[in-house]
Structure prediction request, 226 residues.
Amino acid sequence: MAHISLFVGDIRPLPESGRPSGIYKQPATGSLELGPEGFIGDHQADRRVHGGPEKAVHLYPSRHYAQLAARFPEAAAQLVPGSLGENIATADLDESDVSIGDIYRLGSARLQVCQPRNPCWKIDERFASDGMALFIAELRLTGWYWRVLTPGRVEPGAELILEQTASNSLTLAAALLLCQAHRPPLAELATLAAAPGIAQGWQQKLETRLTWLRQNQAPSPATSST
Prediction:
């Protein structure tokens, strides 16, 4: 069980480029309806890469903020839960606590962990801190996206309750570490790509990488003769 805070927001311009972004979230002050594509009243600017059924809800572990503030002290005052554009903040879970395909209940809704967040350049601009998105990716401090299995209503003080653990599935932390490997074990990568509940877009990327790795296997060390 995890205690959570809820955040939603409108689209606002980023401070330098003026590009529209939905990264600016505010604490929810009342109950929210959660539909197949996210919380009603929450908005995303670029629907090509944000939102949709497999990026319906974003959770960011609050325990990561201290690490970000230590690395980027110029932005420390701004690095508070909700500031990275997440809909759900909690200090009770991180990537090592959840697996691809896990199902949780939140209020009357049911959610499934389906893929990590891929941090982008908008984070750097939002905090005026070059390299923050790269730091988040390299240290695997990404948080994750949920798909909504059952729409419902969620109160700001609701709790995430584990309903079903995915069997034979990697934790998100292990999956991210595997994906960072230069030449990950093919069997492990194939297992990840076949995980029940994995987002289709992420699955396709993994399968494309698997195909390339199989076609470009590292040569076996030459055997010396005596």
In short: The mean pLDDT is 93. The domain at 2-166 is CATH 2.40.33.20 (M1 Pyruvate Kinase; Domain 3). The longest strand covers residues 109-116.
